[in-house]
Every structure is written in structure tokens, then in C-alpha cells.
Automatic annotation (TrEMBL):
<dbReference type="GO" id="GO:0006310">
    <property type="term" value="P:DNA recombination"/>
</dbReference>
<dbReference type="GO" id="GO:0003684">
    <property type="term" value="F:damaged DNA binding"/>
</dbReference>
<dbReference type="InterPro" id="IPR005161">
    <property type="entry name" value="Ku_N"/>
</dbReference>
<feature type="region of interest" description="Disordered">
    <location>
        <begin position="172"/>
        <end position="208"/>
    </location>
</feature>
<dbReference type="GO" id="GO:0005694">
    <property type="term" value="C:chromosome"/>
</dbReference>
<dbReference type="InterPro" id="IPR016194">
    <property type="entry name" value="SPOC-like_C_dom_sf"/>
</dbReference>
<feature type="domain" description="VWFA">
    <location>
        <begin position="15"/>
        <end position="230"/>
    </location>
</feature>
<dbReference type="GO" id="GO:0042162">
    <property type="term" value="F:telomeric DNA binding"/>
</dbReference>
<keyword id="KW-0227">DNA damage</keyword>
<feature type="compositionally biased region" description="Acidic residues">
    <location>
        <begin position="174"/>
        <end position="184"/>
    </location>
</feature>
<dbReference type="GO" id="GO:0005524">
    <property type="term" value="F:ATP binding"/>
</dbReference>
<dbReference type="GO" id="GO:0016787">
    <property type="term" value="F:hydrolase activity"/>
</dbReference>
<dbReference type="InterPro" id="IPR006164">
    <property type="entry name" value="DNA_bd_Ku70/Ku80"/>
</dbReference>
<keyword id="KW-0158">Chromosome</keyword>
<dbReference type="Pfam" id="PF08785">
    <property type="entry name" value="Ku_PK_bind"/>
</dbReference>
<comment type="similarity">
    <text>Belongs to the ku80 family.</text>
</comment>
<protein>
    <submittedName>
        <fullName>X-ray repair cross-complementing protein 5</fullName>
    </submittedName>
</protein>
Length: 733
């Protein structure tokens, strides 16, 4: 199949004349299949859609032949009849799109496609005279070539197209089936598998088209080839603008380079606000600033300032502060050093694009120097680490330059890489890989299992798929694979523009195919999937759930004498599995598992529960102490206070714990429970000082004084009171 040269849009604008046959042969097709005219209308619609959505500057003219009327500049007497110039050369719009979709009607009049090409060529030449069309001029003929024609002007057409540099494309029947035997002629396969008889006139027309294409080096496509390629919407492609810089190597060597964006993420078009009842009315946005008070007092923007959080405090920065704080830089592209390719990992690549760097145009010395650098990097298997500053006072970036050598060109690929602060290190548990490990012996895969998995991976290799008898080629190549999300969005936009009151259309089958693995890959891997099921047998394991009763949970039995499998699981059943706490929204700290409830509330991501969780935990601590039978529940209270202290440190809120611990001491004094405060001290609980957390208002000495002197004093007073009570009792006796 020839390359679809037309469908590759150029950055410079192009002049296109579309010539469509609406004669009787275009309306004939086997039952249940679309006619050639319908397929041609679909193809032209797709061409217009691509141009409109890409905001293309290409200009399009539409000429119909086989029409009942005649409207063209060359019509004279009986020449160039039944040919209509529907739309002169100009930018495509929705009016033209609607005309193609709704107003093109078949006719029973046959016209000469050679005459129609002459009309189109004449219009192209006249309309482009004195104008700049860097993308060139193109004539696209849509016809099944079943109408009568005259070849007396064939030489004039060939010479005119060559002189005007007009490219020719013919979309219609498959012109590559001219090697059929005479007995096989008379039928041709349609795109859907049905056949339509070929007339002698049509075979003559195809022969003429082949001759014409060979003379002007044009291309032909069948509808089955053109429609899938045209079904994709393309965005506007603009002329690339290079980033010019000097690669600084040391103090005395500089290479003039130009960087071009090679790969960049394509963003979906932004939606604009509009008034639903009148889309032509302009909608403006106004913004105001208000204080967070009862009156919502409005303030001017000039009275506001940006602020950065420092602990629980917002520190304001004026525009002058921000300007002075910013690192002063100058534009540069400086080589820092070299390293082996293996030292730069693929997952270290940052940024949203990849750039290609080549020597600056017409600088021969730079080309020689860059070529030497590229080949040296390639031969030593190394890459260059560089510092990049795009413009003065912009952020400095760290990047890696990798050599890329092809038959026709060579360049350096630039990828941004992280600084130390950008890297996140994670530590995961090791797998039991020791040969003597029991787990390794139990779960180590067998040779058959390894072989089955290797074969499955090989069968799903996208770089070695093939199409029928063709050579192996890569499937889903990035430069040939469209983003289905964007394609679906454009499909819906086009439909709503033409049919505003209709529901959105179904997903295009061609777009849907991109969401599925290639059919050949599925076919190749099917047998290996079955083998994988065979060597990795799976069995459904039904876990018997033990019944939990109050007797089994609360009966008094010596746990040490009971086997582990028979011990009651207090975390299951009635009390709930603690592992499930993360899966539900905990809104209250209970007295059964207060620490787990507290941490579960802090882990909630939908709402900041720190303040509320701390208040509830403080209340629970007092309730546990006051409701304790003797000292039975004191250890649980200690664990709660430890959790409160740990969370206060983690959230940089030491005041929360210090305030509670100070009040706790006062309460213990009031209720004569200073032994409990001594227990808290022995368990490691103390106030948070400003060395442990800068936000604390307590110094280390103040904390030591709080924890020592008062306790000794209280203990001494308590001992004196006990002695006095004993003396009073002896006196009474």
C-alpha cells in the first residue's frame, strides 16, 4: 500500500481542490453496503473535520461533476458541462461541512472526470497566483471512474500539473488489481467484503487514471485504505521554533546548538465559558478578595500578600521579598561532566518533553564539533550531564544528553533529570530469596512454569507482530498511534457542533480498536495462556470463619496454656478487625481501641481531623483514668498519651500535648492521684521542649523543672500528710 502522503499535514498552508463525482455509477452498490458516493462523502467530511479542528490555514475548493446544472469558468457551449464549482478556494468552515453532509445529492447525469480535473486545475492556478502556499497545491479526485471521458486533453493536464507543481491523489477503486486474468475481471472486492461488477467503461477509466498517475507521480488509495487513516482528528502542527544556545564545555570551548521539541504531551483543548442561552454573548470573569470574618469584608488585591506556612503560622512575603529571594540566573547550557549510560535510570527522566539538539544551521564548525561529541559518547557508551537555564532568571534544570545516530542524521536527546530533593526513596521488605529458606523452596517456580511465562511474554512482544504475509513490524508505534481520549473528544465536539440537540454518538469502532490489544497478538498468545493455566493450577480456598461468642471471648482461661490456634482472636468478630479501620471513616475515638481509632481519624484524607481527634482522645484518657478499677486501666491511658504526644510532634503542634499534659498534672493533684503522674513520667512521657520541636514554648530546663521539683514536692507533702494522719489515728486510739 502506498504511503498516505496527503494525510500528513504540513506546517505551511496548502491549497486543495476536491473533485467529487456525483454521477449514476457512484450510487450503485450491492445490497446492504454503502455506495461509493456515501464513502466519498464520509472521506471528504473527515478531511474537513481535520482541517477545522486543527485550526489549519489550508484552503479548500469543492468541485462536483455529474450535476444537473453547470457553474464553472471554463463552461462554453458543449464543453465542461455538468461541472459545478460549489465552493471557491478558501478556509473550510462548518457551512461547507454541513453542505457535504446534507446537501450533496446523487444524479443520473454522467460527466467527464478529465474535464472536471481541468476545471479544478484552472481554479487552483488562478486562485493561488501571487499567494504563498508553502505546503504546495493538491488535487484530490473522488470517483469510481465509471463515467465516460475523453483523452484529448490528457497531455495538457499532465503538463499543466507539472508546471504548476500540483500533486494528484485519486481515491476510489483499488487501482492495484490490474494484473487480473480476463476470466477474473468483472468483480472487485468492496471494503465490507461484498463485490460489485466492473463495467468495461470503469476498467477503461481505471487504466486512464493509472496512466495519469504514472505521468505526474501521483498516488491512489481505495476507500478501504483512506477511510481508516482519515478517521483520526489531528491537531494543528506549527513550524518548530528552535531554542538557540551555546553548549559550554570548560572555559574556552562553545558549540552553537539549536534545540527542537521532539516529544511533548498533547493537551486536550480547553473549554470556554459561554452563556448557554446565547452562545454569542461574551462571558467575563471578575474576582474579588474578602476577609474571613462575619461581614466578609472586601479588600483590594494590592492589600494582599503571598504567605508561606511555617509550622502553624503564615509568614507573609511581599513581591519585593519574593524577587530578592529568587535565585538569579543567566541563560546557559553548560556541560557538568560525563557518566556511563547505565548510571542514568529511565525512571529518573522528568519534564513533559524531550528535545533534540543539532548544530546551528550553516555553522560547519559547530557541526563537526557536535558530531565528534556524539560519536565519542556513542563509542564510550556514556552520556553528558548538563545544566540548563532557559532564559535569564528562570529556574536552573539538570539534564542528560544522550547520543542518537541514524543513517541520515545525528543529534543529542535532552531529558531533564532530578536533583537530590526530587528523589523519593522507598524501602520495601526483601523477598525470601535465600536458597535455604523454607518459603523460597515452597514458592520457587519450576522450570515448566518459567518456560511458560517466558513464552507468553515472547508471544505478546509488540515489536514483532506481522500483518498476513507481510514482514514483521512493530505494532502500536507511538508516531502512528493516536490518543483515543482526544479522538473521542473531537468526535463528540464535531457531532455537537453539527447536531446540537442530539445525544452524543457511539464510540467510533476505529477508536474502540485502539483500546484493545492487536488481534494478532491475542491470537498468538492464546495457546500460551492455556499452557499458563495448566502449569499454574488455581484452587478456590474457602476459609472457615470461626464463630465468635461472648463465652469464647470473655471466659477466663490461662492463655499461656492454650495453643496459638485455639486462642480467641479479640480483634475479629464482635469487636471488628483492626485492619478494616482504614477502609471505613472513623469519626469517634472509643474506649475499646482508642489508639487505633485516633490514628484512623488522623489518616483520613477527605477531612483534617487532627484537632477533633485530639480533643476526643483527651476526653477518653480522663474517662479511662476515672473509670479504672484501681490501676487496672492505667497502662491503656499511658498508651493513649504516648499516641497524643507522637501525633503532636508529627503535626508540629507541641502545644496540643503540652497543654493537655499540664492540665493532666493539675487534675491528678486535685484528685490526689500523683502516683499516676509519676507512672507517666516513668513511662517516658514529658513535656515537648523547643529542642525537640522548634514550635514549643518550653525550654529544656523548664521541662526538667516541671517534671522533677514539683513531683518531689508533692510526694514529700503527701508523705507528711500520711504521717500526720497516722499520728491522729494513734491519738484517737
Amino acid at each position: 500500500m502506498p504511503k498516505l502522503v496527503y494525510f500528513k499535514m504540513a506546517a505551511d498552508k496548502e491549497a486543495i481542490a476536491i473533485v467529487l463525482d456525483v454521477g449514476p455509477s457512484m450510487s450503485e452498490s450491492p445490497p446492504g453496503t454503502s455506495t461509493p458516493l456515501q464513502q466519498a462523502g464520509t472521506a471528504i467530511t473527515m478531511i474537513l473535520q481535520r482541517k477545522i479542528f486543527a485550526n489549519s490555514k489550508d484552503e479548500i475548493a469543492l468541485i462536483l461533476f455529474g450535476t444537473p446544472n453547470t457553474a464553472n469558468e471554463l463552461a462554453d457551449g458543449e464543453e465542461y458541462q455538468n461541472i459545478t464549482l460549489v465552493r471557491p478556494l478558501g478556509l473550510p468552515d462548518f457551512d461547507l461541512l454541513k453542505y457535504v453532509q446534507n446537501e450533496i445529492q446523487p444524479s443520473n447525469i454522467s460527466a467527464d472526470f478529465i474535464d472536471a480535473m481541468v476545471v479544478a486545475l484552472n481554479h487552483l492556478v488562478k486562485q493561488t497566483e501571487g499567494k504563498k502556499f508553502g505546503g504546495g497545491k493538491r488535487l484530490i479526485l473522488f470517483s469510481d471512474l465509471g463515467g465516460e471521458f475523453a483523452d484529448d486533453q490528457l497531455d495538457d493536464i499532465v503538463n499543466g500539473m507539472k508546471q504548476a507543481e500540483v500533486q494528484l491523489n485519486v481515491i476510489g477503486p483499488d487501482l492495484d488489481d490490474d494484473d487480473e486474468d480476463e476470466d477474473d475481471r468483472g468483480a472487485r472486492p468492496a471494503a465490507n467484503g461484498h463485490s460489485k461488477p466492473k463495467s468495461a467503461q470503469q476498467r477503461a477509466g481505471e487504466a486512464m487514471a493509472r496512466h495519469l498517475l504514472s505521468q505526474v507521480e501521483g498516488e491512489s488509495y481505495s476507500f478501504s485504505e483512506a477511510l481508516p487513516a482519515l478517521s483520526y482528528f489531528q491537531n494543528r502542527k506549527v513550524k518548530p521554533t528552535p531554542w538557540k544556545c551555546n553548549l559550554e564545555i570548560g572555559n574556552n570551548l562553545q558549540i552553537a546548538l539549536a534545540g527542537y521539541v521532539r516529544v511533548v504531551e498533547q493537551k486536550a483543548p480547553n473549554f470556554k465559558n459561554c452563556y448557554a442561552k446565547d452562545i454569542d454573548s461574551e462571558v467575563t470573569t471578575s474576582r474579588s478578595y474578602h476577609l474571613d470574618d462575619e461581614a466578609s469584608t472586601e479588600v483590594e488585591k494590592e492589600e494582599t500578600a503571598q504567605g508561606h506556612r511555617y509550622g502553624n503560622t503564615l509568614v507573609p512575603f511581599s513581591e519585593d521579598d519574593i524577587a530578592n529571594m529568587k535565585l538569579k540566573t543567566v541563560k546557559c547550557f553548560k556541560l557538568l561532566g560525563f557518566t556511563e549510560t547505565k548510571n542514568v535510570k529511565r525512571h529518573h527522566f522528568l519534564g513533559n518533553n524531550v528535545q533534540s539538539f543539532v548544530a546551528e544551521k550553516d555553522d560547519e564548525a559547530a557541526g563537526v564539533a557536535l558530531s565528534a561529541l556524539i560519536r565519542a559518547l556513542h563509542e564510550t557508551n556514556c552520556v553528558a550531564i548538563v545544566r540548563k537555564v532557559y532564559r535569564a532568571n528562570s529556574d536552573a534544570k539538570l539534564g542528560v544528553l544522550s547520543p542518537h545516530i541514524k543513517a541520515g542524521y545525528e543529534c543529542l536527546f535532552y531529558n531533564e533529570i532530578p536533583f537530590m530533593e526530587d528523589v523519593r526513596q522507598f524501602t520495601f521488605g526483601s523477598l525470601p530469596l535465600e536458597p535455604d529458606s523454607e518459603l523460597n523452596k515452597k514458592f520457587s517456580p519450576s522450570d515448566d512454569q518459567l518456560r511458560a511465562m517466558d513464552n507468553l511474554i515472547d508471544s505478546m512482544d509488540l515489536s514483532k507482530t506481522s500483518q498476513g504475509d507481510e514482514e514483521e513490524e512493530e505494532a502500536l508505534k507511538p508516531k502512528l498511534t493516536f490518543n483515543p481520549h482526544l479522538q473521542r473528544l473531537y468526535q463528540c465536539l464535531q457531532h455537537k457542533a453539527l447536531n446540537p440537540d442530539d445525544p452524543l454518538p457511539e464510540l467510533s469502532p476505529i477508536i474502540a480498536d485502539y483500546l484493545k490489544p492487536p488481534q494478532e497478538v491475542l491470537t498468538n498468545c492464546q495457546s500460551h495462556v492455556e499452557k499458563l493455566k495448566e502449569v499454574f493450577p488455581l484452587k478456590v480456598v474457602v476459609k472457615k470463619k470461626e464463630e465468635v461468642s461472648a463465652k469464647s471471648m470473655f471466659q477466663d482461661k490461662p492463655i499461656g496454656d492454650v495453643p496459638a490456634s485455639k486462642k480467641p482472636k479479640l480483634d475479629d468478630g464482635a469487636l471488628g478487625d483492626m485492619k478494616q479501620l482504614d477502609k471505613v471513616k472513623v469519626t469517634k475515638v472509643g474506649t475499646v481501641t482508642p489508639v487505633e481509632d485516633y490514628w484512623a481519624m488522623l489518616r483520613r484524607k477527605d477531612e483534617d481531623m487532627f484537632e477533633e481527634a485530639c480533643k476526643q482522645l483527651e476526653t477518653v484518657i480522663i474517662d479511662i483514668i476515672m473509670g479504672s478499677f484501681g490501676a487496672q486501666s492505667y497502662p491503656k491511658a499511658m498508651e493513649c498519651m504516648k499516641a497524643l504526644r507522637e501525633a503532636a510532634l508529627k503535626h508540629l503542634e507541641p502545644g496540643v500535648f503540652n497543654k493537655f499534659f499540664t492540665q493532666f498534672k493539675k487534675e491528678m493533684e486535685h484528685y490526689n492521684k500523683m502516683d499516676l503522674f509519676e507512672m507517666a513520667k516513668n513511662s517516658g512521657l514529658r513535656l515537648i521542649d523547643n529542642e525537640e520541636c522548634e514550635e514549643s514554648t518550653y525550654s529544656k530546663d523548664a521541662v526538667a523543672e516541671f517534671m522533677s521539683d514539683d513531683v518531689k514536692k508533692e510526694k514529700k507533702e503527701e508523705e507528711e500528710m500520711q504521717e500526720e494522719d497516722a499520728d491522729d489515728l494513734l491519738d484517737q486510739l
